[in-house]
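Protein: Vascular cell adhesion protein 1
Species: Oryctolagus cuniculus
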Amino acid sequence: MPGKMVLFFGVSTLLWMMIAASQAFKIETFPESRSLAQIGDSVSLTCTTTGCASPTFSWRTQIDSPLNGKVRSEGTTSTLTMDPVSFENEHSYLCTATCESKKLEKGIQVEIYSFPKDPEIHLSGPLEVGEPITVKCLVPDVYPFDRLEVDLLKGDYLMKKQDFLEDMDRKSLETKSLEVTFIPVIEDIGKLLVCRAKLHIDEIDSEPKERETTKELQVYISPKNTVISVNPSTRLQEGGSVTMTCSSEGLPVPEIFWSKKQDNGNLQRLSGNATLTLIAMRMEDSGIYVCEGVNQIGKSRKEVELIVQAFPRDPEIELSGPPVNGRPVTVSCKVPNVYPFDRLEIELLKGETMMKNKEFLEEEDKKSLETKSLEMTFIPTMEDTGKVLVCQAKLHIDEMEFEPKQRQSTQPLFVNVAPRDIAVWVSPSSIVEEGRSVNMTCSSYGLPAPKILWSRQLKNGDLQPLSENTTLALISTKLEDSGIYVCEGINLAGKSRKEVELVIQGRENSKDYFSPELLVLYCASSLIIPAIGMIIYFARKANMKGSYSLVEAQKSKV
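Structure follows.
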C-alpha cells in the first residue's frame, strides 16, 4: 500500500510539472500599472506569475532608490508592502520574475498625496454688526498643493475662490489658507460659513477628493443706548428711598452691573441686577452711581448723580416733557415742606433772564408744612441749549435780617430738534434688474441725532421692520422684493419718514426698460434742435434784408 501511494504521488507531480511546462511564462501585477496612496497609509504591490512552478522574484525602483518597504514572496506571488507610505515611496517600482532562463519585468507607478484633515475656519474675533471681520479658511498638511482648490461661502454666496498654482520646489506637507474680510450685518445671523477644499490628484477620476467644514454665524451688537431711570428723583431726603433702573441694547442682551464711583475714581460693585434700590438714605449716600451694560463684544456705561439732602429741601424743577425746538413746554418749580408759606417768594430764571416770580400771600388757616409751586410755559429755541433753568426760593422769616433764607436748584437745558430733512438715496437705481444688489441709504437731521429705522410696507398697510442701520442692503434681489420701503428718523422729539418704491424687473423685461432720464434728454433735444434752426433762419433773413448795427452806424459818423 505505501508503495502505491509513492507511485501515485510521483505520477501526480510529474503530471503537474508537464502541465506547468506546457503553459507560457507570464507576469501580472496588482494594481496593474498605477497606485495612489495617502501619506501615512499602508499600500501593497503584488506580483504574480503563471507558467512557472517555482519562480524567483526581486523588486527595485526604476532609479535604484531604496525600496522603503518589506518584500514577502511565496510560491508564484510576491508582495511589496509600504507601511506607512512616505515621500520616499513616490517611485516607479519594477517587479522582476525569473523562471530558469526566462526573465520578465513589470512596473507599478506609486503616486502619493496628503489630504488628511477637514479645513479649519478661524475668525479674527467675534462678529460685530458694522465692524470688519476677517475669516480664514485653513487646509492643513496638503500635498501636492499645486492641485488644491479652496472655496469660501457665506450661505449660498461665494465669497472667494482660490487655486494654489505656485511651483513646488520641494516635496513637503504644506498648510494653505484663504482669507476674506467682510462687514457682518444683522441678517447674517444663522447663516453658515462653508470652507470647501478640493484636491485634484487623480486625473483618471473626474471627481476630485473633497473635504468641507461649516460654521454657523453668531453676530453680536456691542452694548449701546444705555439708559437710567430714577424714581422718585435724583434729589432725595434723608431717610428716603430711591429705585434706579438701567437698560442697555445689544446682542446678546447685555448684563447690567451697578457700581458707585469712589473718591479715587475706582468703582465699588453694588449689584448685578437691572434694578438697584437704596433705602434709608443718608447724606454719605450722595455720589455718582454707574450702570454698565456688558456683553462679549464690549460695554456701555451711564452715570447718574444722587444728592441726599437734610430737611428742608431745595426746590425741585420739573418739565412737562423734553424741550423741543418750537414746541411749548411747561416748567414747574416746587418748594416742598414750607412754613410759613405766606412769606415765600419763588423766582424762575432762564440764564440771567427772569421768566416769572411769585409771592404767596394767602392767609394760613392752620399750621402745616405746605408744598408750593410756580409754573411757566415757554417755547424753547436752539439758542436755549446750554442755558440753565434756575428756581430760586426765598423765605422772609426774619424781618430783622436784610437777607432772607434762600435755596435754589438749577437744571441745564438741552433743546431737542424733531427729525426733519429726511432724505433717501438709492444705488444704483430704484428700478433694477432681478438678481442685482440695491443699497438704500437714509439720513435725517435732528437733536439728538435721529435713530434710523428701515421698514417695508405690507399689503395691509402695516410696516415690517427690517434694519436699524442707515443703509439697507438687498443682495441678489428677487421680484418679490419690489414694494414700498419706508425710512423713519426717530428721536425723543418725534419722528419723520420717507418712502421709496423699489421696482425689481425680470431679466426678460430689462432690455425694454426706458429710463426717465433718457426720456427727459430725448424731449429736451427734440425742443432745442428746432429752436436753434429757427434762430439761424431768422438771422440769415435779417442779413438778406438788412439790419441795423450800432457799430456800423458809429463808423459812418466817423
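Remarks: The chain has a mean pLDDT of 84.
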